[in-house]
Amino acid sequence: MTKKNTHHDHDHDHDHHHAPANFNRAFAIGIGLNLAFVGIEAFYGWKINSLALLADAGHNLSDVAGLVLAWGGALAGRIRPNPRHTYGWKRGTILAAFANALLLLVAIGALMWEAVERLHSGGADASAQGLTMMAVAGVGIMVNAATALLFMRGRETDLNIRGAFLHMAADALVSAGVVLAGALTLWMHWNWLDPVVSLAIGAVILWGTWGLFKESLHLLFDGVPSSVDPVAVRQCLEGLPGVSAVSDLHIWAMGTSHIALTAHLVMPHGGGGDDFLEMASEKLHDDFQISHVTLQVATQALATPCGG
Questions:
Q1: Residue 47: burial class (beta carbons within 10 Å; 0-12, 13-18, 19+)
Q2: N or C end of the chain: smaller count of CB under 10 Å?
Q3: Does residue 100 belong to any structural domain of this protein?
């Protein structure tokens, strides 16, 4: 039996896959803006004795922690491989996305719990505090929306960046809900509206965050990324000239923006030279965005496949 192993990595040829590398400035600005807002919110919460503002300041502090996690994951993903970590630390981006989702779920749970408590007690009289709360929440909309915009262009291609974007967009939505509820409460004296709006916003955020949680957990266990159809990948490999069978096909995420593939190709009439392997690697990259490809070519099937 003759075998030939090849590995083609397109990371150097296609820099647009290194999305996290382009977001250092965005993370730094986002963390700075949100730390400043936490200070403002905590100060005015203490000044007007508003438990709501103080609680939201704590919630926004968790956002800073989420951004730090996402930035740390992105930086870890850029550490070069070494003999002990042959893939580098790219998986740090997946861990950061998972931790970010967990943190956001906990924050949403706390928000909804507080909303239920307030609804049960009939809500709080916001007449004395309403204008200040609306003004601070208005600043929150601008800070969170601006931070979310910093990550908008990377949310489709990198799960870690998507987590940061969702975190900030969710908080902008919460702040908008606070402004709206505050205005209606001052105007109509509907003290029950604030907790109801909070519950509605929490449900919307929960819907989006659950998807991030499931996808990051899926990737942590080497699941095929949702952007890749494994059946189509197998058909693509089987359709290559000279290939009679494909076995031991594995597709997984090395990081939130790096997809890897290994496979055994049976070519009974020989072939599988450099030109063929380069063509196969290019096709997998162009059709499926798989940038790290390792193929093994043999004239007959392996006697002891790995069972993949």
A1: exposed
A2: N
A3: yes
